[in-house]
Amino acid sequence: MFTNFRKTLFVVLFCLCGSSASALEHPVSVIKAKAFIGTDRMTVSYEVVYADDLELFHGLEAKESGFYDEDELDDAIEKHGKFLDEHVKIVDSDGNALPSNLLNIIDIEIPEGGLPAGSLMQYSLVYTFVYKFKKEKPKFLTFQHLIDDSEIPNPVEIDITLKQTGAKPPYPRFGLRFNQPETRNFKWSDVTKNASQKDIDDWLSKELEPDQVGIEGYSSSYSFIYITDYEVRHELLIPLATLATMIDFERADKSFLTIEEQDNARPKIEALLSEGNPVLIDGVTVQPVIDRIDFYGLDTMDFATRAPRRTVSMINGRVGIILSYSTKGTPDEVTVKWETFNDALKVIDAVGIAFEEVTKFKFARYKTAEFKEKDENIFVWKNPGRSTDPPPEPVSTFQEAFQKQKQFQRYSVIGGGVLSALVFLTMFFAPAKRIKWVAAIVVGLGLVWITLMLIPTTFQSITKKVGLRPELSENDAAQVFEKIHKNMFRAFDYHHEEDVYDALQASIDGPLLSTTYQNIRKSLAMQTQGGAISHIDEVQYEGGQKSDPIPGESLAYPGFAFRCQWNLVGSVEHWAHVHQRTIKYDAIFHVENVDGNWKITQQRIVDESAGKVKQWRRKLTPTKKKQPSQG
């Protein structure tokens, strides 16, 4: 039996994929820059907050061992320094780019045993550059980043804080978006001397005070819309300061929101986003289920996990909201309309992820010059012809062969009756001198018949030898098992309880069915708290063969025991970041005939182990280029 379901089935995948804080990524690539402006030069430190940018921009991958190669990691770190130098430009008032020099790199301290795959987001990289001015005491400097994110749904943000020599806090702070220059002016009338190198180093290494952190660099709102066979899911990240312009957050301290105040704010957030942003599925307005509302501080790296409940800052806090809309199957059309705009929220960076198609767009209050043709407040997806897979069908047993066996049994009963009649007639009509030996023969045949009918093992042995007891060949058993085994995992495609239960019934029977169902629902409920989209990508079979039954467990004919080795490949996706893990299994199953269908009735895990881990960020679907006309 399934004595411990967590060591079985696909729930293990849920647990393993969600067990690490590094399993699910941040939605954006963030660089925190601090610039110290002296009279003749500027020193800038770029903190790459999430070192997994090395994977995104330089193709760094973990080896089959599950660890990164140290030489490849060092090479990617060096490449990223050159990458920043090429893609972040600082220009003087004459339009000339300032010459730069990479001064220092604070890289990753590799732990003993190596750096495991999926852990890069726990590390930061710091690159320090020196830019020399062609003219001392520049009046204007223009900042620009050219890190093109057109092929990735995750936007790239550079958050810059400036400190001019002699200036006191608060320091100016702003955010840079791709190819959107920002110009700042500087006054030098009160500056009499340049800062010392110690002053520069001290400020660059100093953590900024919370009241010095503005919201500009973290002021963007993000929308990710997922379309699957059984769910439309809308994931949102909105700054608290932005929501505060739409909702009255009742709070004792205007700068913070306590846990109790967050709980009081949740119904208001639900009402705002449920009523102001209608979702139509096949022309019908569908009300969302609010899967999650979490409040994050500035130090949060992983928006996919449940945020610890704590007081957050109104200045730099964010709210993660996940709204779920159930469907009965693949929708024909999905329309998401965004109506919640005001002066603080005019544009939302949005991504649509419909199966393997990934598109980037904006929900905009007004059309902008950059995206005249694409900007609007409606997202529409039309089904290109995809249909929902039919539900798992039971795998029928070989009924014709079973009928032959039942027919044989019926003929045996008839034969027994005829034999009994023959005994009676023989005893009644046979001459007296022959009665004894004729009766002995008839009685002997009767005893043989009774033995066959009353001792099942003897009966089954005889019927097998004469070809009337059906047995699955090794190849047929493998095909039957793989089909019902895959059907078992397909049950987890569904979202409604009754649909999951019905799908499981096609593959599982007996006490195992209810045990499996209850444990799955429990694990799904826990996973929903994390809000991740979990999906079985593939069941890979490495080998399998008929085997002896599970010790101590019964196995009724015509069932068979099957020992199988397989890999369960599953992924968890959140905010366009995919984390995939492979679990290796070795188990023995009992497959039995239940009302004419093959079903799994028992299972025993022999071994399980974690396989390779992969993670990547979604890339946009390439736009098809028009073919030149032939003429």
How would you sum up this structure, described in words?
Helices cover 27% and strands 31% of the residues. A six-stranded mixed β-sheet has the order 4-5-2-1-7-8, with helices on both faces. Strands 15-17-11-10-19-20 form a six-stranded mixed β-sheet, with helices on both faces. The chain has a five-stranded antiparallel β-sheet with strand order 22-26-25-24-23, with helices on both faces. Helix 7 packs antiparallel against helix 8 and helix 8 packs across helix 9.
Low-confidence residue ranges = 1-25, 210-217, 400-405, 456-460, 523-533, 625-631
Can you count the beta strands? 26
User: Structural class, from secondary structure content?
Assistant: alpha+beta
Spatial ordering of strands, largest sheet:
4-5-2-1-7-8
Rg result: 35 Å
Name the beta content range: 25-35%
Mean pLDDT score, rounded?
78
- Describe the main β-sheet briefly: 6 strands, mixed
